[in-house]
Amino acid sequence: MLNLCLRLLVVGGFVLIAPLVTPIAVKAAPLGDLPVLSGIELTQQQEDQLAQARRQVRSQLEAIVSPEQRNQFKAALEQRDGLRDAIAAMNLSPEQKAQIRQVLQSSRSQFSGILTAQQKQQLWQNLRSRLRR
C-alpha cells in the first residue's frame, strides 16, 4: 500500500512538475490539459481555485530547479523516456528532492480541499489507471 501511495504521489507530482517544461511567459494552460482530471466535472469556482493553486505550485517548483534541470527534464520527456527517467535526468540534489516533496505534499492537501469526495475518488481512479499503462 505504501508503495502504491508513493507511486501515486510521483504520478500526481507529474501533474505539478510537467508545467516546468513550458516557458514562464506562456499563459498557464487550462486545466483540461491534465489527464488526471479527465471525466471530473468541475465548477467554475473549482477550476479557478485549481488554476491558481497550479500557478502557485509551478512558481514554487521553478524556484527549486535550475533552468538547466528543466531543460534536462523536457528533453527526457520529449525522448519518451518516461516520468521516472525524466525526473532522474534532472540530477536533483537531496535538498531539492526534499523541497519538491514538501511542495507536492502541501499542494496535494490544497488540491484536496478544493475537490468534493466524489471528485477525489475519480481523481484517484484516474491516477491508478495511468499507473497501469
How far is the first residue's CA from the last residue's CA? 19 Å
Low-confidence stretches are: 1-11, 20-29
Helical run tally: 6
Biggest sheet statistics: none
Estimated share of beta-strand residues: under 5%
By helix and strand content, what is the structural category?
mainly alpha
Estimate the helix proportion, in percent.
55-70%
Tertiary shape = globular
Radius of gyration: 14 Å
Mean pLDDT: 77
Order of helices and strands: HHHHHH
Q: Write down how many β-strands occur, each being a DSSP E stretch of 2 or more residues.
A: 0
Describe the 3D structure.
The chain starts with a helix and ends with a helix. The protein has helices at residues 2-17, 44-64, 67-78, 83-89, 94-114, 117-131. Helices cover 69% and strands 0% of the residues. The longest helix is centred in the middle third of the chain and has 21 residues, at 44-64. The protein has a domain at 42-133. The protein has 133 residues and is mostly helical.
Characteristic key phrases:
single chain, 133 residues, mainly alpha, 6 helices, disordered N terminus
Characterize this entry briefly:
The chain has 133 residues and is an all-alpha fold.
Break the fold down into its secondary structure elements and pairings.
Elements: H1 2-17, H2 44-64, H3 67-78, H4 83-89, H5 94-114, H6 117-131
